[in-house]
User: Which sequence fits this backbone?
């Protein structure tokens, strides 16, 4: 099956066993960006769930 990533809006092939959060599917690419502390414009709703690292603390 495919799922549309809420971050980049692309359709990704995902396993039917892949768990897709209620907030929407986030592809590995966008997920790694989120983990790096980036925020994606389309994924602000899910940002509340976990505290984000403060931007610009160190470079
Ligand atoms: Zn994506």
Assistant:
């Amino acid at each position: 099956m495919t799922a549309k990533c809420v971050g980049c809006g692309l359709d990704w092939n995902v396993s039917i066993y892949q768990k897709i959060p209620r907030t929407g599917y986030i592809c590995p690419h966008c997920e790694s960006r989120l983990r790096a502390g980036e925020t994606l414009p389309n994924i602000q709703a899910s940002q509340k769930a976990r505290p984000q690292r403060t931007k610009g603390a160190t470079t």
